[in-house]
Structures are given as C-alpha cells and as structure tokens.
Amino acid sequence: MTTATVLAPWFNRVAQWFDDRNLTTGSNPQKQYGKLLEELAELYQASNAGDVEGVKDAIGDASVVMAGCMHQLDGVWPALSETPPPKSMPHCLNELIEAVAKIPRMDSWRHAETFGFPCLSIRILLSQVAIEHGLTLEQCEEHAWGEIRHRTGKMIDGVFVKDA
Q: What span, in angstroms and rounded, lies between the C-alpha atoms of 134 and 119?
C-alpha cells in the first residue's frame, strides 16, 4: 500500500471534521497559520526534550492544520511519493522553521496551487523529524485523528477552541 492510497481517506476525514465544526468557512488560512506556528513550537520543544509522544502529537496536529488549510483552499493534499532521505535533526528543524516562515510572503493563502508547494515541503520535513524519533508521518497523522475525531468546541474569532 502506498502513502497516497493511505492518505486520501485520512485527508477526507480531516476535511469532513473541518466542515462539521465550521472551520472550513468560519475560519481562514491565516488563522490556521497561527495554529500551525503553535504546533511547530510544541514540536521543537518535544524534539529537544526527546519526548517521542509529544513529537507524535505535534507532527500529527501540524498535519491536521495543514490539511484543513488545504481543504479551505479547495486544494489537493500532497502525497509523499517516497521516504525522504535522513537529515540531521537540528538541520531538519531549522529547515522546517524556514519553510513555514516563507508561507505568508508567498501569497499562499489565496491559492491552493501556491500553498501546495510549501505544504509538501513541510510534510517532507515533518516526515524526517518523525523518522528521527522512530515514527512515521502516517502514525503521527492517525494519532492526531484519534485525538480530534470526537472533539467538540466552538469558534471564537475564527479559531476553534476545544471544550475542556
């Protein structure tokens, strides 16, 4: 089974989750960018602490945010065609930060085509971080789905706030 065949159902579930919670039309990609930054900060902290569960959670949550953003833009979720080559962890995390920092300057928020390239780059880097911690990107994404699928909450100023 290839990554692409595994991914479509996951993306479709996340897209439906966004629709069901009014995140698709009640929020916007700029708001999701703020959430992505939060998740990457958690990833950085968990990775530096050697917290594998925290890494799994942050990678999965970052993927959910990117998938939701791509859904908001009516885009196609970029599948990874192969396992990326390994990189050193500090180099990989720095590249991840640089890739995410470029998004606002790329006018990516209006077009799925321009968001697709940074999204794919970020997915590749998230996959590399996952591998470095003995995980796969798919494990992280499925973990995140398991965490959010029954989550309830409300929209506040274009941001979904989960119930306590």
A: 22
**Pair 29, 115: CB distance under 8 Å:** yes
Structure confidence by residue, pLDDT tens digits, 94-120: 787 777 777 665 555 556 666 666 778
In a 3-state reduction of DSSP, which class is residue 75? Answer: coil
Say whether 156 sits in a helix, a strand or coil.
strand
Give residues with Cβ within 8 angstroms of 154, minimum separation 6.
160, 161, 163
Burial status of residue 26 (CB atoms within 10 A of its CB: 0-12, 13-18, 19 or more): middle
Most confident of the ranges 27-31, 68-72, 91-95, 157-161: 68-72
Note the pTM of the prediction, 2 decimals. Answer: 0.82
